[in-house]
Amino acid sequence: METDLISVALEAKHQELGAKMVSFAGYLMPLQYTSVVKEHKAVRDAVGIFDVSHMGEFILRGPKALDLIQKISSNDASKLTIGKAQYSCMPNDKGGVVDDLIIYQLGEEEYLLVVNASNIEKDWNWIKSHNTENVEMIDHSNEISLFAVQGPLASKVLQKLTKVTLDDIPYYTFEIGEIGGIQDVIISATGYTGAGGFELYVPNTGAEKLWDAIIEAGQEENIQPIGLGARDTLRLEMGFCLYGNDIDDTTSPLEAGLGWITKFSKPFINSKALQQQKVEGITRKLIGFEMLERGIPRAGYTIYNKSNEAIGKVTSGSQSPILEKGIGLGYVTIPHAKVDSSIFIEIRNKKIKAIVKKTPFIKK
After folding, report:
1. CA atoms of 247 and 266, how far apart (whole Å)
2. Would you state the pLDDT for residue 3?
3. What backbone phi and psi angles, to 5 degrees, belong to 120?
4. How crowded is the C-beta side of 133, counted as CA atoms within 13 Å?
5. Most buried among 122, 205, 229, 349, by the most CB within 10 A?
6. What is the pLDDT of residues 192-208, one digit of tens each?
7. Tens digits of per-residue pLDDT, 277-296?
8. Closest C-alpha among 98, 54, 223, 207 to residue 152
9. pLDDT band at 364 (very low <50, low <70, confident <90, very high)
10. Domains of the chain by range and CATH?
11. Spatial separation of the C-alpha atoms in residues 124 and 122, rounded to whole Å
């Protein structure tokens, strides 16, 4: 089975750093280097670097590129300008979500779409099937490496390597410039941790040089390589959705709390049905919850109300390294979705008490 896995450019580097490598979305990826808790705290307190080169990157180019993006995505991409990025999702025609993604406007008629690793082929085929206007589409997924340098000291570390003024890049905007001796790197003020920092899109040919430069520049700040294990606990503390867990082909963006990226100011795939759902009201909702007693909630666990009736399912769950208690996300029926409602999570045949919480679980 291992032979079928796709390697990222720095696979040997991660092995050398002692990473525990696992199969993730068809790629061999570092799960952890030391421990999830240590890596998690390094990002919250200082700075860490993630290799997330398994993500997919598509270029859409041409006079009709924006029209295609407007059709396939729920957010309003006409609000983008060159140098801006936007979080969005691609609704399917059955009320669910094909994928969530980030859209970058690179030029007047050129956009970069960054999609989840597990959905690269599915997303490509979906967009292609709606590309009636002959928009040029290029899949760069296997030529681009992506590093996320995250944490309160991320800017301090990276500023040593570039003349681009990082403090002048607001959240969800980007610059293209030289960093660590590599030209034409997309330096994006985005991330999946809630700890601040940047994501760097670099050609595979310059990936190792850039990684080494960042590690060296961050010695003073005690920079740590971070695996996918801590990436998951970090995003969970912020209440960020993970495709395949909290959103999928069967979950509506409105149920998932993604109404803020679902703009009915323009038509898009399945917008009429979603608009109707908004008017009629949803019947279930994605909530955050904290365990009140010991127990770690896991995806798939059943959620109950006080009357012992099953009201939903956990979609993501873990022990929060910062709160030192179990936290999770899950779908429950609307009457039980109110903040501070009592719910119960079935863990190993025991119903453990929890409370519905507003996300993020931790304040920045």
Report:
1. 23
2. 53
3. -50, -55
4. 13
5. 229
6. 999 999 999 999 999 99
7. 999 999 999 999 999 999 99
8. 223
9. low
10. 2-52+142-231 (3.30.1360.120), 56-139 (3.30.70.1400), 238-357 (2.40.30.110)
11. 6
